[in-house]
Predict the structure.
Amino acid sequence: MARKANKSKKPQSVGRPVTVSIAEARSLIAMIEKSQVPFGESAPVFAKIKSHVEAGNPLSAEDHERLLELVKKAKDWDKAVETSAMTEREETLSG
């Protein structure tokens, strides 16, 4: 049973670089920028991560998690925009 408990816990790599390639991080950043999601309070976090990646530095586990959260926000934003556009079209069609 102890083995199962150990498997379910997240690895503790806070502050250490994550094995995320610079190319993958750049791809995630491009995806976020393409969505044009309004960041609000997350703008400074995104700017920090983007400048870190552009400098060619590896991401910490914390920054990688934040980047993935921003990617999720961007995907959710894109879905909402798409849904909104579909709803508007239906409402404007003559019946």
Remarks:
- Residues 61-92 form the longest helix (32 residues).
- The helical segments are 2-8, 22-35, 43-54, 61-92.
- The mean pLDDT is 79.
